[in-house]
Write a sequence for this structure.
């Protein structure tokens, strides 16, 4: 099957080429998939898309007219896909449900440790010959409370790591997981997690219910000076509300691997351009904010697994007409392997 791969970088080509079989013919496009670029899929049966590709109704209508029958996402999240439009156009959408939860979990923990101990500031200081410690004081993680929002594959992994640090781990998930609770994680309501946690880390998918889950109201309910970490999807956090929280001191540290408007910035070298996003630039002025450009997934193990599953989705579709990991419009937000309906606590917002 011919596959047009959008948003490709040299590392994507390296791992996808290694995973492709002789029956796959991959055409690599550097640009993002959008109404402007969708025509480049002409002649392909499948397109392969990444997190900031625009797989909306207009693009899917165009892809259908070009003869595309499969969208193989190189990601776990599928919030950028209009599933109803895909279904209407008879296009199957496949994803990579779990490639390396450890990769993202370890990145979240890297942000926690770096912010806590001011590693980002110490790095710059020492290189300038400034060995003063003023302003670099951190806090012990041992004994602190970490609040996890979303205890799926990544959140559960973060829980295991933070329990290893000697933290008390509390969590909110509309569908609490017995195995995670058995590790020693206490499930609470969202507002209780936010009120008790010294560190809040977000690991839920972006859905209508989780959009701006962290907003002015929920920030007001957080512990004063708490650390907030988001490695999930940018729009789970209302960035303007977080900036207000940083200015008031309510939020003591902020670690982001994702940002609401990241599609105009991330994955590109913008170093010789003027960045016009004032909200993003304001974030970068705070000494207690650390931003990485959506690199949580970026480990050798994860890229190997993403490429293998993506090509397996294509091969299985070729052989059977169905993808190995198809996403359907009516798919619940819970992972398939979690049969644990529990009373659904109300969201704050
Ligand atoms: P998962 O599907 O295994 O777990 C998600 C969990 O969130 C589930 O337990 C679900 O019940 C829970 N959840 C759903 N809605 C919620 C809500 N409103 N509030 C609280 N919990 C809620 O997903 P996984 O693999 O753990 O990934 C989580 C997210 O991480 C993905 O959806 C994606 O957005 C993000 N991600 C980020 C990456 C990065 O490079 N920074 C890479 C991979 C994933």
């Amino acid at each position: 099957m011919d596959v047009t791969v959008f948003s490709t970088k040299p590392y994507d080509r390296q791992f996808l080429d290694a995973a492709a079989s002789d029956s796959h013919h991959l055409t690599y496009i550097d640009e993002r998939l959008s109404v402007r670029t969708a025509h480049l899929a002409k002649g392909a049966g499948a397109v392969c898309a990444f997190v900031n590709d625009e797989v909306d109704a207009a693009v899917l209508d165009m892809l259908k007219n070009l003869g595309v029958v499969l969208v193989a996402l190189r990601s776990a999240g599928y919030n950028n896909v209009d599933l109803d439009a895909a279904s209407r156009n008879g296009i199957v959408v496949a994803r990579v449900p779990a490639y390396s939860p450890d990769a993202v979990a370890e990145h979240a923990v890297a942000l926690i440790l770096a912010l806590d101990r001011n590693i980002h500031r110490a790095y710059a200081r020492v290189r300038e010959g400034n060995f003063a410690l003023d302003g670099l004081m951190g806090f012990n993680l041992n004994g602190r409370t970490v609040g996890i929002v979303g205890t799926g594959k990544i959140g559960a992994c973060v829980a295991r790591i933070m329990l290893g640090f000697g933290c008390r781990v509390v969590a909110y998930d509309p569908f609490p997981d017995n195995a995670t609770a058995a590790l020693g994680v206490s499930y609470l309501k969202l507002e209780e997690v936010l009120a008790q946690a010294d560190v809040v880390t977000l690991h839920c998918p972006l859905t209508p219910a989780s959009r701006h889950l962290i907003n002015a109201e929920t920030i007001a309910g957080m512990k004063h000076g708490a650390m907030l970490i988001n490695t999930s999807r940018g729009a789970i956090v209302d960035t303007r509300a977080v900036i207000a929280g940083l200015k008031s001191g309510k939020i003591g540290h902020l670690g982001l691997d994702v940002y609401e408007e990241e599609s105009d910035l991330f994955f590109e070298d913008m170093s010789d351009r003027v960045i016009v996003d004032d909200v993003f630039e304001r974030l970068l002025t705070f000494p207690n904010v650390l931003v990485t450009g959506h690199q949580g997934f970026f480990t050798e193990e994860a890229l190997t697994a993403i490429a293998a599953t993506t090509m397996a989705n294509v091969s299985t579709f070729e052989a059977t007409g169905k993808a190995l990991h198809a996403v359907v419009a009516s798919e619940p937000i819970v992972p398939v392997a979690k049969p644990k309906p529990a009373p659904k606590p109300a969201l704050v917002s």
Notes: The two ends are 45 Å apart (CA to CA).
